[in-house]
Input
Amino acid sequence: MVADPFGPQVEADVLVAGAGIAGLAAAMVLGRQLPQASIGLLEQAEAFSEVGAGIQLGPNAVRVLYDWGLQEALHQVAAFPLLLLARDARSGSEKGRLRLGERALQRYRTPYATIHRADLHQLLLAQVRAQGIDGHLRQVLTHVELSDRGVRVGTQSGTRSGTQWQAQALVACDGVWSRVHRTLWEQPEAAFSGHLAYRGMVRMSALPSDLRRSEVVAWLGHDMHAVHYPVCAGDWLNVVVVVHGDVPAEAVGWDHVAAADALKQRLGPIARDLHRVLEAVAQWRLWPLFGRPPVRKPGDLVRGPVALMGDAGHPMRPYLAQGAAMALEDAWTLGRLLEQDAALSGGWPALLDRWARLRWKRCGWVQARSQRNGTIFHAAGPLKWGRDAAMAVLGERLMDVPRLYQGPPEPG
Ligand SMILES: Cc1cc2nc3c(=O)[nH]c(=O)nc-3n(C[C@H](O)[C@H](O)[C@H](O)COP(=O)(O)OP(=O)(O)OC[C@H]3O[C@@H](n4cnc5c(N)ncnc54)[C@H](O)[C@@H]3O)c2cc1C
Output
C-alpha cells in the first residue's frame, strides 16, 4: 500500500459517499435498519442542498416513499398531475395521452407525482437527521481502497489536511462522475451524450390561465423535446428542453446560467403553446447530459464491501424520468435486505452482492429504455411516422410502463 497521505483517522461502521437523493435515501435506510451502527455521510458541498429544478416520480418511486412512511410529507409538497400528454412540438397537435390521477392509483396503488428536487431532498434529509446520522460537509472523497477490515476512504476538506475513514462497507452515491467508480472499477469518466438540457421554472400565476394545468406535457420534435409539469404543490411549473449540441465553451462543470436566445436558436419554429411557456421562463440553466453504458452484471454495481447506488452506479438519460426513482429503489431494496438480515450473517460483501443481484437487471433495463426513448422522442422521417402511428393505435398501452411502475421486486 502507498504511504498514508492522510491526517486524522475516523472509524465508522458504514460510510455513505454523496448526499444527493441516492445518498440521503441510503443513509436513512441504514440508520433505520441498523440503529446501533455508526454511519458516516460524506458530502463535498458546503451545505446539504439540491438544485432548483423538478423531477417526476412514477408510481414505483412514490410506492417506495409511502413504504417509508413519507406519504403525508410528500403530499404537502408534491403535485399529482392528472394526465401525461404528448404533443407535436411544431404543430401542437396531440399525439397521445396517458391518464395518471385515479388511473395510476387503481393500477399501481400509488399516484404519479411531480416534485421540486429541493423538496424531495429536504424530506429525506429530515429523515436522516431524525436517525442522528453524522453528516460531514466539505468532505471531498479523493481516495478509496479495499482493506482487510473493509474499506478505506480519504477525503480532503479545503486547505486542511485530509481525513482517513475506515469502515466495514461503503455505499457510494457520488453521482455520475463517481470517484469511487473510477477508482475501484477502473473505468473512464462518464461521457457527454451530445444532448443539452435547458431548465427553468415559472410561477403558475405568471402563466396565461389556459396553460395552468395539472398535466405533464411532453413536446416531441426533431432532435429536441420539451417537458413541463407542476411542482411545489402546483404553485410552480418546471420546464425542461432537451436539444442536440456541443457543450458551450464557457460551460465548465454541469450547471450553468444559459441564455434564452441560444435556446431559441437551437429550437427553430415551435408550437404557440410551447412558445408561450418558454417565453414565461425568466432564467434558464443549462445541463450538459453525461452518461455511461447500461450495467450488464451484478459486478458493475458491487465490489466486495462497496456498492454503487444512484447515478454513481447507473446514470441514465432523463427520458424515462427514472434516475432518482432508481436511486430510491436502490435504497429501498437495501433496506428490505437489512430487514431480513440485520445481523449481517454473511457480512457486508454477501449482503451487497445480494443487493446487486436484485438491482442490476432492472437498472440496466431502465438505462437502455431511457436511451431508446431519446431516439424515439427526437425522431424524424420514417421513425417519426412509425412512432406517431403506434401512438395513435396503441395510445395508453404504449405510454404506460407497468413493468416499471409496479415497483421494485420484493427480495425473496
Ligand atoms: C434534466 C434532467 C431531468 C431529470 N428528471 C428526472 C425525473 O423526472 N425523474 C427522476 O427520477 N430522475 C430524473 N433525473 C435524474 C435524477 O436527477 C438523478 O438520477 C438523481 O438526481 C441522481 O441522484 P444521485 O444522488 O445519485 O446523484 P447526485 O444528485 O449527482 O448526487 C451526488 C452527490 O454526491 C456528491 N459528490 C460527488 N462527488 C463527490 C466526492 N468526490 N466527494 C463527496 N461528495 C461527492 C455531490 O456533491 C452530490 O451531492 C433527471 C436528470 C436530469 C439531468
The two ends are 40 Å apart (CA to CA). Residues 78 and 115 are 5 Å apart (CA to CA).
